[in-house]
Write a structure and sequence with these properties.
With 402 residues, the chain is α/β, with parallel strands linked by helices. It contains 15 helices and 13 strands.
Length: 402
């Protein structure tokens, strides 16, 4: 079953033959290779040089110099040569090869690279690429795509529950509706992220503390997290002896590998981003289910928040979380095109809990649009707050800009 993801193909088509290195990133098995192969088949008919470094047998044959030599040997002068380098971060100092080809005097190249790390360019060489790249992140399949493929475009309780529990990465297998098979695929993807994108990249010999922290983040999505508090918790419970700096590094590396998104706090009163307060959300809801299945107290509300966050990011919003003057939390503060919006997320909205769910929104006392996104609605008044149905929002029928 081939799934065409038009959003990403259209982006690639628009970027074709522009004077930029096209960079496609995203968590492993999210579909980057498939999208690149579809684009090449549909829009690039000749002068193709394609190397897939997912195959360890291929990757071990190259260093950055051999990569240049190989591409040059396959190139045609006086024509555009289309170079596709899949999971190119597997080659040490690949940046030197890419920038050399990009600036080549003899041959003309249109270069496309994919990677499973948001910091795929090394700190030492990243300045070489300043102003020379155009990047897009591939997200797991969203609710709209799940409904289109498996539920005949229908949004109902079954399709929403499937998406909230199984997420979008699991769509890489045709047996998506069987979560036991999806879980087996997710276990392998998670292990590959930890092994290849964190342990190998950062030379971590003992990963117990890394995986313990990873599980902690999964079980605390949507909650305020700090390295200080976690260090104290681990020490007091005699679980792992680990420094604050190591905790910070691990958190950053987990986000770099696209296992999590770090969402910073925005101080509404001071109109500034707060540096010490953050929340983390999972990149995929199926992965979240996999890692929280033994936590019977896991809050459904945080899962709904996570789903809304993924939709907001995919729609191009800059996302923060926030607090009002009385420290009441606002789930999301989003920015796009000089517009700011406030969002609360809840499972059920009724006359009994409306005051609690709307309290932080109404306390802001400004003219920005305010929303509550909920799975069930039964309220008699909204006090100017716009109410969106969760399923309609995730599907794309209800939008913040409507």
């Amino acid at each position: 079953m081939e799934i065409i993801r038009e959003k990403y193909l259209n982006w690639l088509k628009a970027e074709k033959d522009t004077n930029y290195i096209k960079v496609i990133t995203g968590i492993r098995r999210v579909g980057k290779t498939t999208i690149l192969n579809q684009y090449r088949r549909l829009f690039v008919s000749e002068n193709v040089i394609d190397i897939d470094f997912n195959d360890a047998r291929v990757a071990e044959q190259f260093d950055w110099r051999k990569l240049i030599d190989f591409v040059e040997s396959k190139s045609k002068p006086n024509e555009v040569n289309y170079v596709f380098l899949d999971e190119v971060q597997e080659i040490k100092e690949f940046e030197k090869a890419v920038i050399t080809l990009f600036s080549h005097k003899k041959f003309k190249y249109d270069i496309y690279i994919t990677g499973s790390n948001s910091k795929m360019f090394s700190a030492e060489l990243v300045t070489l690429f300043s102003g020379r790249t155009s990047e897009i992140q591939v997200f797991p399949f969203d609710f709209n795509e799940i409904c289109e493929i498996f539920f005949n475009h229908k949004t109902n309780e079954e399709s929403l529950e499937k998406y909230l529990m199984q997420g979008g990465i699991g769509l890489v297998i045709p047996e998506y509706k069987d979560f036991n098979l999806v879980k087996k695929a997710l276990v392998k993807i998670y292990a590959s992220c930890i092994k290849n994108d964190i342990k190998a990249r950062h030379t971590i010999r003992y990963s117990e503390s890394l995986e313990r922290l990873c599980e902690y983040l999964f079980n605390n999505v949507g909650r305020k997290v700090s390295a200080n508090n976690l260090e104290n918790y681990l020490v007091s419970n005699k679980e792992i002896k680990i420094s604050k700096n190591t905790i910070i590094n691990y958190f950053n590396w987990l986000c770099d590998a696209f296992l999590f998104y770090k969402i910073k706090y925005y101080d509404i009163r001071g109109k500034q981003i707060m540096k010490t307060k953050v929340k983390y959300y999972a990149t995929d809801l199926g992965m979240l289910t996999l890692k929280t299945s033994s936590n019977i107290g896991f809050n459904k509300g945080f899962r709904l928040e996570n789903a809304v966050l993924l939709k907001l990011l995919e729609d191009g919003y800059e996302v923060y979380t926030g607090e009002d003057e009385l420290k009441h939390e606002i789930d999301f503060i989003v920015k796009k095109d000089n517009s700011i919006k406030y969002i609360q997320v809840c499972d059920e909205l009724n006359n009994k809990n409306f005051e609690r769910e709307s309290r932080s929104l109404l306390s802001t006392k400004d003219a920005y649009d305010k929303f509550i996104i909920t799975n069930s609605i039964s309220v008699s008044q909204t006090l100017g707050i716009k109410i969106l149905n969760l399923s309609d929002f995730l599907y794309g029928e209800s939008k913040l800009d409507n």
